[in-house]
Amino acid sequence: MADRHATPRVLALLRLMGKQENVMDNPPLGTARRIGATTSTFDVPAHKLLQAVIEYSPSPETIAREFLVELSKCGIVVVKEFVDALDSDCPCGPENWAAIVHQELTHNAANLAFVTDLGMAKTSVFLVRNPGGKKTPEVTTHPTPNIARIEQIEALLQDATTNRSQSALRDLVLLRDGNRCLVTRYAFTGARLVTPRCAHIIPFSVHSKPLVHQAIETFTGQKLTAEVIQHFINHPANAINIEINAHDSMDQKLAWGIEARSANHKCTYHFRVVRPTHVSPTISLDDGDEIEFGKGNGGNTVQLPNPHICNLHLAVARVFAASGAADVFDKYLEDDEDDMMQVPVYFGGPFVADDVLMRRLEGLILSM
Fold first, then answer.
1. Contact in structure between 92 and 307 (CB atoms under 8 Å)
2. Looking only at Cα atoms, what is the longest distance across the chain?
3. 351 in the Ramachandran plot: left (φ > 0), alpha (ψ -120 to 50) or beta?
4. Would you say 160 and 234 are in contact if contact means Cβ atoms under 8 Å apart?
5. How distant, in Å, are the alpha carbons of 207, 237, 238, 316, 318 from that of 255?
6. Separation CA 166–CA 163 (nearest Å)
7. What contacts 315, CB < 8 A, 6 or more positions away?
8. Hey, how many other C-beta atoms are within 10 angstroms of the C-beta on 252?
């Protein structure tokens, strides 16, 4: 029986494209800029971005199939036949299949606009990291949950998920994980304490972005649906309390993430380094070390981080690093003197429009 999986063939094709001459000056699939932009200095080669998305997607076969649907519209009969053959008994292995398709695309007038548009869609979706600025003020910085409220965990959940209360969310996570940062080991109480930052694993602003919901559904192969995102966006399943520098290196720099592994009906969580030089020096964990959630007084009653949410964040961080987009955003972080940086600013955020942020980003790059 022939292998009908699309992923190895699509990756072989994208890697082959990346090896052709003058690939950076003349990307074979064009550039993946945000949807709606006619010109932009924030350009990522579409083949490089799509390769990273497929390599790190929780559901790579879904993205690979989406790529093939668009590739079949290129207008070359042989290419369409080879794409269609994957659902029958395609005799070619991934490398041979990729070589034949690449030759046809190179030597014929292929219309690859549909594939480029797919890369643009993925670029627009993954612009959800936080490029810095002052943080949203905490309702309270005292690290000890209110004892009267501890006895009413259901009320806290209602307050967090329905009323979007950040103090309720922080209290729930403190109950679950205890009064210590799990990645730096610094205490949130005592004489030498640090203030906990209640961090959303995926940005809170995503709850109001239907296009992002749709893309997350595709990226995760429906493991995370729009309904799940809406329900868990301000919930302990999407939150951790961490020291502020550790938070910034996860949120702004996408330097590390949490890998959730399931085995024998048990889930374990592991610290994963994505960009080693950007990991906060306050973090005491090494790559692969287990993060022990649920060791607080309420660890048996407050939900642990959702494994799909953890793995989504980690996958997005890896896509940013592998595609080169992370380096572009780092330049954005270097200039924090603009007036609009006096509020929490990030793509998909409520304070500054995405187009304004993109124009600001492009202006910074042009001045480099």
1. no
2. 72
3. alpha
4. yes
5. 23, 21, 18, 11, 9
6. 9
7. 56, 57, 58, 219
8. 19
pLDDT tens sequence across 264-286 = 889 999 999 999 999 999 999 99
In which residue are the tokens 């029958």 written? 88
Q: Which residue has the higher pLDDT, 242 or 326?
A: 242
330: nearest Cα among 254, 244, 246, 242: 254
Check residue 296 and report its DSSP letter.
S
Residue appearing with tokens 């399943």: 237
Nearest 5°: phi and psi at 267? -110, 130
Phi-psi sector, 147: left (phi>0), alpha (psi -120 to 50), beta: alpha
- Cα-atom radius of gyration of the chain, to the nearest Å? 22
| Unique residue bearing structure tokens 């502020």 | 244
Rounded to two decimals, the pTM is 0.75
